[in-house]
Write a structure and sequence with these properties.
Layout: H1 5-9, H2 33-45, E1 51-57, H3 67-73, E2 78-83, H4 93-104, E3 109-111, H5 123-132, E4 145-151, H6 157-169, E5 191-194, E6 199-203, H7 215-223, H8 229-232, H9 234-247, H10 252-256, H11 266-277, E7 280-287, E8 290-297, H12 299-311, H13 322-325
Parallel strand pairs: 1-2, 1-4, 2-3, 4-6
Antiparallel strand pairs: 5-6, 7-8
This protein binds guanosine-5'-triphosphate.
């Protein structure tokens, strides 16, 4: 996965404007050991697995896929859970379901919110049905079901497991949850989530595709918190976010930050946000008579606040894959 400056210039003619720089960083370096190791362990655990639940962020139902899963885990019955539905604009829900089926052959899709447990009760019956209608290699004699939960980082895999336990066992957390990607670092031992049928889940570390297919996809993943922010750059992400919100006519940020109107310029927006939130910083400036301290808007802090407001849903629900649903493929990155 590489999001380089050259790749960015490749999107000049694409859906979003040119001129954004991704710090020239090789984001591929953030494929830490635990991901490679995790994927290997997931493959070796497959013999004891009856079904795979793939979890994606509902805001990126198409670009949030990791093609490696299809190859590595593809032979098992597959349920797709589109989580964080509370943050997603699902006006085009039918189109999403249709494209998942036509493009990836995914016929079993459930939208969930693991914070409120919405629709989570549909998961175990769907899993039971899938396993019931499949051949359980090596495991035909076992009465319990073993299900692997897979997905890219930070989509809510652990939250789903905890939510299932709340729903079916009235029990609390069994696995750690966190707002940053990379909280789960190894395939866990079996966690019981239901009594009847007897279902155990394996939590797994979030695994990213080794190569992100386009810069725009990388930015979408970053906005959804699946890449560490500092690898992409918060101001770059804020720039893409502002562009997307304006393009989708999601203008909640205007009211949220008490602005006079919409804003096309990210620098201008971040300056207004910084001033409004009192986020300034002192920098030393060299003058003819020596150093003086100058107070400047803290753009980085303002960008962080903007991203945080978006991620917590305060700017309204969004469908970041709207372009793909409408048939506009992203420009490819260099290999
Ligand atoms: N709004 C919203 N937030 C959610 C939902 N599900 C999970 N979250 C939040 O998303 C963040 C990531 O959740 P986790 O369950 O740790 O995600 P994970 O996929 O296990 O993460 P990794 O361990 O990084 O692979 C946490 O801050 C959760 O509280 C949801 O349905 N809606």
């Amino acid at each position: 996965m590489r999001l380089s400056a050259r790749a960015l210039s490749g999107v000049t003619g694409a859906a979003w404007r040119a001129g954004v720089a991704l710090r020239g960083q090789d984001v591929a370096r953030w494929f830490p050991g635990h991901m490679a190791k995790g994927l290997k362990k997931m493959q070796s655990s497959l013999t004891r697995v009856d079904c795979v639940i793939e979890v994606r962020d509902a805001r990126i139902p198409l670009s949030g896929r990791n093609p490696v899963f299809q190859e590595a885990l593809g032979l098992k019955p597959h349920l797709l859970v589109l989580n964080k539905m509370d943050l997603a604009d699902l006006t085009e829900r039918q189109k999403i379901v249709q494209q998942l089926e036509e493009g990836e052959g995914l016929r079993n899709v459930i939208f969930t919110n693991c914070m409120t447990d919405e629709n989570v009760r549909q998961v175990i019956p769907a899993v039971s049905q899938l396993i019931g209608s499949s051949h359980r290699y090596h495991r035909g004699e076992n009465v319990d079901y073993c299900v692997m939960v897979a997905g890219i980082p930070n989509v809510g895999k652990s939250s789903l497991i905890n939510s299932l336990r709340r729903q079916h066992l009235r029990k609390g957390k069994a696995t750690r949850v966190g707002g940053e990607p990379g909280i789960t670092r190894a395939v866990t031992s079996r966690i019981q989530v239901s009594e009847r049928p007897l279902v155990f889940l394996l939590d797994t570390p979030g695994v990213l595709a080794p190569r992100i297919e386009s810069v725009e996809t990388g930015l979408k993943l970053a906005l959804c918190g699946t890449l560490l922010d500092h690898l992409v750059g918060e101001e770059t992400m804020a720039d893409y976010l502002l562009h997307t919100l304006n393009e989708h006519r999601l203008l909640g940020y205007v009211q949220h930050y008490g602005l006079g109107g919409t804003c096309q310029d990210t620098g201008h927006l971040l300056k207004s946000v910084a001033v409004r939130l009192g986020k300034t910083r002192k920098v030393k400036a060299l003058t003819g008579t020596g150093d003086v301290n100058v107070v400047q808007p803290n753009y980085a802090a303002a960008a962080r606040d903007f991203l945080q407001a978006f991620r917590s849903g305060q700017l309204g629900p969004v469908m970041l894959d709207r372009d793909l649903l409408r048939g506009h493929p992203p420009a490819e990155t260099e290999p």
